[in-house]
Design goal:
By secondary structure, this protein is an alpha/beta fold. It folds into 2 domains: 138 residues, no CATH class; 133 residues, no CATH class. Helix content is 56%, strand content 12%. It is built from 13 helices and 7 strands. It has a 5-stranded mixed beta sheet, with helices on both faces. Strands 5-6 form a two-stranded antiparallel sheet. α6 packs parallel to α8, α7 packs parallel to α9 and α11 runs parallel beside α13.
């Protein structure tokens, strides 16, 4: 059973366009804050390179971005999903042609989504006599995130989930049935993140498209996800935040009334909300792992349920990750 080609290109491009603050926070550790969103210059980029003998990259984003000093600059973002000879030179050519066209500083960022752990192009140099030129660009290697997959699954950043999906798509490039299983687990895990419904469905669609499957396996995944969507046992997937908030507000109001001051009421409410949200997240994680284990291994005995009920967040996070690839219950616990 052959796998369809993974749809990396369109997925990454759309995610960068739609979730820009998440992109800068996750990959660059830069909070976007209240700044205006960047302006897309993709059409101008295509015109600029139409006659290039080097050809266009498959996933190009060119953005006009307001700088910290209020002066604009250009951001060229490239997601490269295959090792390529001469890539650093192509980045250099792109950089100087963009500067020549727009006369603005250019920030060049590369996200390497290939399978090779050792391929990390970062610079291009030229020298003739005593004349030297060195061009350096920012490089992010997706395979570096394999060491922290558990943290990705517990994040509410869009790109944490896309990186996880990308890595598992690479791992399962010759294993359709394994990809179907992992894809089902990832899509199920999305339901515990707590995004509002429209955003949840958007990210669900991006991951669904990236992790392409043969028709028969895709229908199985769709059927399983449909059951989750309809099942009353999954009502928590959209309501846990609301319940946590309600519990927190009630406790906060009670504490605030006891203090008898407006400031005390506000402090009590905030603390109550935080405790309620934390408890709600634990309840959600416990429900999610029970559901995943039952679907994978059948009915759980009392000892396993008790272990899950008594577990704290760190253990639950580790178990949720283990369910993705475990073959038996013993491999999880």
């Amino acid at each position: 059973m052959n796998l369809p080609q993974a749809d990396y290109d369109a997925v990454w491009k759309q995610a960068i366009e739609r979730y820009w603050p998440d992109f800068t926070a996750f990959f660059l550790l830069e909070e976007w804050g209240g700044r205006a969103l960047p302006e897309s210059l993709d059409q101008e980029l295509a015109k600029c390179f139409r006659d290039s003998k080097l050809g266009l990259f498959r996933v190009d984003k060119l953005l006009r971005v307001p700088g910290a000093d209020a002066q604009p600059c250009l951001w060229h973002i490239e997601v490269q999903v295959a090792r390529q000879r001469g890539f650093a030179e192509r980045m250099f050519v792109c950089q100087y042609r963009l500067y020549d066209q727009f006369r603005l500083p250019v920030r060049s960022i590369v996200i390497l989504g290939d399978r090779s752990p050792g391929w990390r192009p970062r610079q291009f140099e030229l020298a003739a006599g005593n004349t030297r030129m060195s061009f350096e660009f920012e490089t992010i290697k997706l395979r570096d995130f394999e060491a922290c997959l558990d943290a990705l699954f517990c994040s509410d950043n869009v790109f944490a989930w896309l990186v996880a999906a990308h890595l598992f798509t690479l791992r399962t490039r010759r294993e359709p049935s394994v990809r179907a299983l992992v894809k089902d687990k990832l899509l199920t895990g999305l339901r515990a993140v707590g995004w509002e419904v429209l955003k949840f469905h958007d990210i669900y669609d991006l991951i669904d498209r990236m992790m392409g499957l043969p028709k028969a396996l895709q229908e199985l995944v769709d059927e399983q996800q449909s059951l989750l969507e309809r099942g009353s046992e999954m009502a928590w997937k959209y309501l846990w935040e609301e319940r946590a908030e309600q519990r927190g507000m009630a406790r906060g109001e009670a504490r605030g009334e006891a203090i008898g001051e407006a400031r005390g009421e506000a402090i009590g409410e905030a603390r109550g909300e935080a405790r309620g949200e934390a408890r709600g997240r634990l309840e959600t994680m416990r429900s999610m792992i029970c559901l995943q284990l039952e679907r994978r291994f059948g009915q759980l005995d009392a000892s396993v349920r008790q272990k899950i009920d008594n577990a704290e967040q760190e253990e639950l996070e580790r178990w949720i990750l283990a369910v993705v690839t475990a073959r038996t219950l013993d491999e999880i616990f």
